[in-house]
Amino acid sequence: MNAKSTFEEDVATTSSLLNKAPLSFPTPAPITEHGGAKVIAIFNQKGGVGKTTSTINLGASLAELGRRVLLVDFDPQGGLSLGLGVNAHQLPLEQTVYYALMTPTADIDQIVLKSSVAGLDFLPANRDLGTA
Ligand SMILES: Nc1ncnc2c1ncn2[C@@H]1O[C@H](COP(=O)(O)OP(=O)(O)O)[C@@H](O)[C@H]1O
Ligand SMILES: [Mg+2]
Fold this sequence. Notes:
This protein is an alpha+beta fold. The protein contains four helices and three strands.
């Protein structure tokens, strides 16, 4: 069996697992200009339900479609940062979202990191956020 399935196969598998008719996901029109920023918050009090995974995948998908995306890690466990290849627990306080939040004079350009996906940047968090 081929481990890599197509998008259409994923939709068919999901619809059969859920016993629901397949949904149609039209490809959005190409972006011709950037408008104002939209904020999407993904939250759930329960741990381990897929918040971080969904955030990374949603962000990467939007970036692939041409959007400029800034993911903000707001979890002191730093899972989003780790998922993007950065162990934020090794970063100094001044290079984390905690500092961006608590220091009005913080230079955000010094804190935002680039991921390996073009157009997908992120603000890393580590355990220091727990004291905010
Ligand atoms: N759609 C999914 N199917 C199967 N496993 C998933 C899915 N989404 C996330 N996971 C797994 O579930 C675990 C928890 O996901 P995570 O995104 O870290 O949750 P949260 O951020 O809500 O704590 C991780 O091991 C992740 O790989
Ligand atoms: Mg998480």
